[in-house]
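Fold this sequence, please.
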Amino acid sequence: MVTADDVRAVLRERSPVRSTRYRVLVSGTEWPVKDAWSAVSGLSRASFDSQSARRALRDLGFEIVGGSEPKALIASPGQSKLDADALPMAGDVGVSVNFTWRFAGTVELDATGRPAFPKLPSVPGLYRFDFGIDQVGMRVLYVGESGHVRKRASQYRNAVRDGGRNRTSRRIHRLLVAHLEAGGAIEYSIATTVTINGADADLRRKTARLLAESAAVHLAQLDPRVHVLNIDAEVGEV
């Protein structure tokens, strides 16, 4: 049977060789729990898990440092479901996103039957198609982001003819054409300046553009008078 003195004696002649999330404090030195228990018990590290090592060392009176004691992430039969809000806090995230849509012009059909866009800048940013009010009184919008606003418009214009694999481009191309052929109007707005937490965001970064796009889409989805054409497959929305 392993005792606390055995642990101290075995580890006294050794030095830790790695850093892990959970460590055991022995004579002032932090040891990875699996390394410590393997050295003392003679068992290979693969034959037991970290939780077993922590329990054994804690039962011997040693302090475990590092991560919080884990809770079962998967409820076994007879257990209640995991309450995610009850898990230990590991940090906070607070984000504010602000930008202004600028009206760039309207989308029209040209003589070839393809969408023609207004003059656009060659910069990264966000864009919005406003299809106006539909037959049931809903305002219909589509919001997107791109590292090159003008090039993205060109992709929508040529989506069917260029044989590209971008399904979104083809889907929006068809919606644009169908709406315009039916006599509808489409207003096109862009945003090329965004602030995140009060500082100008570098829109060359896709993560910054996606954050701004998601904020705009989410706010639109919260408005009961707006129908958003962005696909939200997780909740079955299109």
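The CA atoms of residues 87 and 238 lie 34 Å apart. The first strand starts at residue 22 and ends at 26.
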